[in-house]
Amino acid sequence: MVEAAARIGRxxxxxxxxDPIADRRGGKIARVALARRLLTPxxxxxxxxxxxxxxxxxxxxxxxxxxSNR
Length: 70
Description:
Shape: elongated
Strand order of the largest sheet: 1-2
Oligomer: single chain
Structural class: mainly alpha
Order of helices and strands: HHHEE
């Protein structure tokens, strides 16, 4: 996840999150904080049977088709 945070960190919304942390604590700590921010919704989406709002579970609909539960 830390490697993904290094690449995804180029997005403006994620920069607004990571830049203040990098200024206060350093770039490596900001990267780990961003990785945790990315990992948290994924954890809850996998843990809960209903997923989370950002990642609803896929339900089978017909042969070979997966559809979002939204």
